[in-house]
Inverse folding.
């Protein structure tokens, strides 16, 4: 019986601490040239680390929002700052044209906390099955909102002027799955018969959606 409790406790403890890999040293600068594939990035020799490994410049520059969505995400994760490797954190700047939209998407590996710097945003997320409960809020300059890890969420500028937000994410590489892109822009495409049945619409609607251009607003 004691062994059973010990195993159960170990499993609960393991799941309760599930997150990006924890560092076992001061830092683990990603070695972008390593051929070794691991969960995360291989560390380069710490003696070869330099200040530039922990630096990114340009987050003050607006993203190009002249696209069909009217938004642009400028990510600052381990791809841009190799020194973020194993640290479990990253950033993104999101620019919105008037009425621009950051469409429904998920971050499979990170919770997001968003702060509005300029403008007014309508934001929200949907809980998992079976409730699919929608939480929404209108945010103004200085307001903060949290999107739990893995849940579908969105942001839209509901003003006549441009808007800017900064997001912090609890992963060095949180990932992005834009729902419409993944469903209708999959390569190779998902069967239109399957999608027509899933969405309970005529197959012609699915064919039209699959033939549309599904852009990526992540820079």
């Amino acid at each position: 019986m004691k062994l059973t409790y010990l195993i159960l406790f170990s499993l609960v403890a393991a799941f309760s601490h599930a997150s990006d890999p924890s560092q076992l040293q001061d830092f683990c600068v990603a070695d972008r040239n390593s051929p070794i594939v691991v969960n995360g990035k291989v560390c380069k020799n710490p003696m070869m680390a330099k200040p530039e490994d922990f630096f990114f410049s340009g987050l003050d520059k607006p993203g190009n929002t002249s696209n069909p969505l009217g938004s642009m995400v400028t990510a600052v994760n381990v791809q841009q700052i190799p020194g973020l490797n194993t640290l479990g954190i990253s950033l993104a700047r999101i620019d919105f044209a008037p009425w621009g939209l950051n469409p429904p998407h998920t971050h499979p590996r990170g919770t997001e906390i968003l702060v509005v710097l300029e403008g007014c945003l309508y934001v929200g997320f949907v809980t998992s099955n079976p409730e699919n409960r929608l939480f929404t809020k209108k945010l103004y300059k200085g307001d903060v909102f949290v999107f739990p890890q893995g849940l579908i969420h969105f942001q839209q500028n509901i003003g006549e002027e441009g808007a800017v937000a900064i997001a912090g994410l609890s992963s060095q590489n949180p990932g992005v799955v834009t729902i419409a892109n993944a469903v209708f822009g999959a390569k190779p495409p998902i069967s239109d018969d399957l999608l027509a049945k899933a969405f309970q619409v005529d197959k012609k609607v699915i064919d039209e959606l699959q033939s549309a251009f599904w852009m990526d607003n992540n820079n």
User: Anything to note?
Assistant: Strands lie at 71-76, 90-96, 101-106, 112-118, 121-126, 134-139, 144-147, 152-157, 163-169, 177-178. Confidence is low (pLDDT under 50) at residues 3-18. The first strand starts at residue 71 and ends at 76. Residues 2-16 form the longest helix (15 residues).
